[in-house]
Design brief:
The strands form 4 sheets. A 5-stranded antiparallel beta sheet has the order 1-2-3-5-4, with helices on one face. About 30% of the residues lie in helices and about 15% in strands. The protein has 2 domains: about 20-100, Phosphorylase Kinase, domain 1 (2-Layer Sandwich); about 105-340, Transferase(Phosphotransferase), domain 1 (Orthogonal Bundle), CATH 1.10.510.10. The longest helix has 20 residues, at about 130-150. It is α+β, with helices and mostly antiparallel strands. The chain has 10 helices and 12 strands. The chain is globular and about 65 Å long. Helix 4 (about 130-150) packs antiparallel against helix 6 (about 255-270), helix 4 (about 130-150) runs antiparallel to helix 10 (about 325-340) and helix 9 runs antiparallel to helix 10 (about 325-340). GO terms for molecular function: ATP binding; protein serine/threonine kinase activity. This is Serine/threonine-protein kinase PknD. Keywords: ATP-binding, Kinase, Nucleotide-binding, Transferase.
Length: about 350
């Protein structure tokens, strides 16, 4: 959107609007199970912003309010080029808790991968293997910053990675984030980690051998859960969870490294390494089976053998066998980038 002089030279509104009255032309952009995202025009500063709040039926629920406020404050404190700036946190008499942030443009990385999987030649040209790895490096730089600040994302996946119109890479949705030192129970009604098999019957035994990873598909319909998630559901997205996240064990930055390894596999091979017949089957794949190396899974995509080593290490079942820091993982990705060249 072009900058308009009419938004810069006029006087302040009188009387000065407060709360959500400050934002005109509010339009819904997206909604999840418990939250809704609007765009709106800030009449005081003169810019379009994004506004996140709870759906009406949840606006008075203490637990949902607490989680949204926590998400806003975690996001606000992670001031980094790879995060969305938070402008304001407030409470409206009608709509309840809300927070205001920069409205970003572009498309999510998941959409990019899905179009590549469909054989869209134009998207393949814009996002070759090298560019896709660069995007993951940028995301991991943001995660490295968050880890230094004591924050684990816990829901890293391509649909939470936003590619801007000018190449900027933003990691979204810190609603499931874990701040080190907090209790594993965020409050009386929410589990900070899933309990494997909760509400799901075992679907049968799983044969040994590599997982037959399929092409990238829209996993949101089957598995994605809102970041404002009640107990007896999962925090995070099952296809990207680490074994310790599934097992409800203590997490550190190596859990995000596992999720980053899943994203790397998907970005290179255009295939999901662990997706099973259902959620329980997916959990079994993550906890007990190693996927086929990405270069073998998609031999036509020019993936170097070194990429297999990186993925194999990042996706180790034991956290102690993975890269021990995000910086270590990034160092391997930088070496991989040198091998890929302009491919």
């Amino acid at each position: 959107m072009m900058l308009s002089l009419s938004c810069t030279d006029t006087d302040l509104p009188s009387p000065l609007p407060v709360g959500l009255e400050r934002f005109s032309n509010r339009r819904e952009m997206a909604r999840g199970g418990n939250g809704v995202l609007y765009s709106g025009f800030d009449q005081v500063i003169g810019r379009t912003v994004a506004i996140k709040m709870l759906l009406p039926q949840f606006k008075s629920d203490y637990s949902f309010r607490r989680r949204l406020l926590r998400e806003a404050r975690v996001t606000a404190q992670l001031e980094h080029p790879g995060t969305v700036p938070v402008y304001e946190i407030g409470e409206d008499p009608e709509h309840g808790i809300y927070y205001v942030m920069k409205r970003i443009s572009g498309e999510c990385f998941f959409s990019v991968l899905r179009q590549i999987a469909k054989g869209d030649a134009e998207v393949v040209d814009v996002f070759p293997l090298r560019r896709r790895i660069e995007i993951l490096i940028a995301v991991c730089q943001t995660l490295a910053f968050a880890h230094v600040r004591g924050v684990i994302h816990r829901d890293l996946k391509p649909s939470n990675i936003w590619i801007g119109n000018f190449g900027e890479v933003t990691l979204l949705d810190w609603g499931a984030a874990k701040v080190w030192g907090e209790s594993r129970l965020d409050d009386a009604n929410y589990l900070s980690s899933p309990v494997r098999g909760l509400g799901k019957a075992q679907s049968g035994s799983v044969a040994a051998g590599p997982v037959a990873a399929g092409p990238v598909a829209d996993s949101r319909a089957a598995f994605e859960l809102s970041p404002l998630t009640p107990a007896a559901q999962l925090l995070g997205t099952p296809t990207y969870m680490s074994p310790e996240q599934i097992g409800n064990r203590d997490l550190d930055e190596r859990s995000d490294i596992f999720s980053a390894g899943v994203c790397l596999y998907e970005a290179m091979a255009i295939a999901e390494p662990f997706r099973g017949r259902d959620q329980e089957d997916t959990f079994d794949n993550i906890c007990s089976r190693q996927p086929a190396p990405p270069s073998k899974r998609s031999p036509h995509r020019g993936i170097p053998d070194f990429a297999d080593e990186i993925v194999d290490k990042a996706l180790s079942k034991q956290a102690s066998c993975r890269h021990q820091s995000m910086r270590e993982f990034i160092a391997d990705l930088d070496l991989l980038l040198q091998m890929v060249g302009g491919a």
